[in-house]
Amino acid sequence: MAAPRSAGQRLDHHTLEKYENIWFGIATVMILLLFVTVLASFFSGTYPSLNGEGGHHITGVKNGRLNPKNFAATPFATPGLRQNADGSYEAFVIARAFQFEPAVLKVPVGQPVTIHVTSADVLHGYFIEGTNINATAIPGQVSSFTTTFRRPGTLNLICNEYCGTGHHNMINSVKVEVQEP
Amino acid sequence: MTTSPVFSPNAARETPVISDAAYLGSLKKVTQYYIVTALLALLVGTLMGPLQALNYGGINVYDTPILKALLKSYYQGLSLHGVLNALVFTQFFISGWMLYLPARDLGMRINMKFAWFTYILMTAGLLVAAVPLLTNNATLLYTFYPPMEGSPVFYIGAAVMVGSSLLVVGQVVNMWLRWKRANPGRVTPLVAFMCVATWMMWFVAALGIVTEVVFLLIPWSLGWVAGVDPLISKTLFWWTGHAIVYFWVLPAYISWYAFLPKHAGGRIVSEPLARLTFVLFLLNSTPVGLHHQYADPNISNAWKTVHMFLTFLVVIPSLLTAFSVAASLEDAARARGGKGLFGWMTRLPWGKPMFAAPVLALISFILGGAGGVVNASSTFAPVVHNTAWIPGHFHITVGTATTLTFMGISFWLIPHLTGKRLPSVRLASAAVWTWFVGMMVFALGMHWQGLVGVPRRALVSGAAQNVYKEMPIQIPQMLTAISGMILLVSMLLYFYVLFRMLLSRRVDDGEVSSPIPYSEVISPASPNLAGASALVRYTEPLMALWGVALLLVLLMYGPVLARLFANAELVPGWRLY
Ligand code: HEM
Ligand SMILES: [Cu+2]
Ligand SMILES: [Cu+2]
């Protein structure tokens, strides 16, 4: 309805509308592509996603919840790595101001390991430097994920969620070892 | 065709005249109080910034005697920085800005007693919350995740402060409804429309944090209940916490859409498109908060993925804005004789701070937005989550897109409100450009450190282990430290100009010498609904769209929260600071 201004090179309504629609189309297609690629990467397992609700099968843990004052009834009573009867590996880790237990977690190289993390007090972060392992340790809740460490060596395990005056010193390690046969 | 004889389609809007001088004076004064309180919060808040930048430059200044006397810890300083900048500065500025604009745009009278009451209540909340912050009794950072426990005084003050913003929502929506009743069949003017839509969005968004603080944290901190479920609290926090970023940038968008073209000498591209953008934000900015919780257990991946998809959709109105604003700038530049595919850019008034601030803010936001898409992707998020990348990201969004735009607004809004003059265009311009350059360098340094694995919110320069000394981060550390110094200069320049302006004498009638910079429009919306395009007619019923927004957020959060409440695990509080 508004008559376009014909002043020299200036933009007018009709040209703008055309560009606008093209731009809108490009934006929409880009977003859809992005979503599809993220989903593809999700399903192909390029990152260790957290097990969803009900994904934990741990004694003493119900719906992923446990009482942080009562680790005794759960495998968190003895933090560290264990091998199950079927040969699979599981690790139990407690975050507590201002360190992780165990302070050095030893894991086998090239084998899938399921790591369960919880907190004994406030929120902490479970971030293994140089990897995409990044989970929140929440008191009363268990974060579980499965991952495979590909190279032997020692990785820094850094608390990346503010947990008090000692937060910056809450650094331990994960030691990836070649398995003794 | 339009039925209104006075409607000339491309002309700039003029504010309806207000002949009651006492009322206009009071309206301007309350706005000025909001804006100045906001800027004082920004002053105190940013004072900590350069120290934090030095920390991320590997230099620990927190053991010096002066700082030791002032701050109990790095984390107390960081709490002040986060709360004052991200919550207080923004909320006060926006409350003043987005109360004044619709009142002027619609020419409506508002109840000034209530307006002053709201301002005073909000300030009282702020002062109450400030006491525990300053005495190290609420060193919880601005996210205050339980079970880290703060003094109940902090939660109560914060609840009063945030709650009073809902009274501003009431004022603006009420004013708009009265205008609708008095003007049946008319299309809401663009600026008022954008303000009303933004306030409605904020109302839907604020429900999460208000529920968290009022029903969970206050009773818990007072000892009325034994424990708190940290995951429920965190989920309610991010219900508000993501949408809040749109509450920060939409008021900047208003100035980009409506006023920047005027500063540049160009025209608004399309009113209907601007309306669509704001409606998309109203509907779509709230039900996305789970994308902050990819690393949290016991929330199903399906819901996280739904929120991720919705997050990606919010990119579309942002891209529409980038298109519109760029087109108005090009229009301006060509009118001034600009030529060529990119050559027109040189014809823009880069030396004018009212112009440079919002444009540089917009450029910063394009980069920030691109990083935001990375953060939102559940597959990338674990690489950057809670690393220094994150502060790198939000200092070029809220820390620049919003803050720099607000600085630019203050250069004409304060003269407009007070009749005082900007004392120095050159110093104001220098403040704007150093802020932009400083934040770009800062963002580079912090994003880079984050990719190497340096965590955020940590006194990394004071760590007992050698981990950070062994990382290959010498160059980004240097960039961060230098940026802190550039930003220090910038804020000193800005606050010098600001205070000189505020403390100078009134020289003229701001209404005349510094009018609200309404712009001409290339494709206006017709003033009457009957003659308006479909886009204008479908976006006009904001009350109904508000209902849809509320419904959407309940659909996207209801099942998640219901499951969390059904399995709640209350844990005791801790004070580890
Ligand atoms: C002089 C300018 C500024 C500098 C040098 C600066 C520097 C920093 C640094 C280095 C951090 C990271 C601290 C950490 O993670 O330990 C930080 C955090 C933060 N900054 Fe700024 N900043 C400035 C201005 C601003 C502005 C204008 C805003 C917002 C309007 C802002 C909002 C925040 C927020 C919300 C945090 C996060 C606090 C938290 O994680 O709890 N900053 N700032
Ligand atoms: Cu920790
Ligand atoms: Cu920590």
Automatic annotation (TrEMBL), chain A:
Domain of life: Bacteria
Domain called Cytochrome oxidase subunit II copper A binding: residue spans: 84-181
TM spans (from-to): 21-43
Pfam families listed in its UniProt record: COX2
Alphabetical keyword list: Copper, Membrane, Metal-binding, Transmembrane, Transmembrane helix
Location(s) in or outside the cell: Cell envelope
Keyword Cell cycle: no
Chief location category: other
Name of the protein: Cytochrome c oxidase subunit 2
Organism of origin: Deinococcus radiopugnans ATCC 19172
Automatic annotation (TrEMBL), chain B:
InterPro entries named among the record's database cross-references: Ba3-like_Oxidase_I, Cyt_c_oxase-like_su1_dom, Cyt_c_oxase-like_su1_sf, Cyt_C_Oxase_1
GO terms for MF: cytochrome-c oxidase activity; heme binding
Limits of the Cytochrome oxidase subunit I profile domain: 28-530
One of the record's GO cellular component terms: membrane
This protein's UniProt keywords: Electron transport, Membrane, Respiratory chain, Transmembrane, Transmembrane helix, Transport
Top-rank taxon: Bacteria
Protein's recorded name: B(O/a)3-type cytochrome-c oxidase subunit 1
GO biological process, one term: aerobic respiration
Residue intervals passing through the bilayer: 33-54, 74-102, 114-134, 154-177, 189-218, 238-260, 272-294, 306-329, 355-374, 394-415, 427-448, 478-499, 543-566
SUPFAM superfamilies: Cytochrome c oxidase subunit I-like
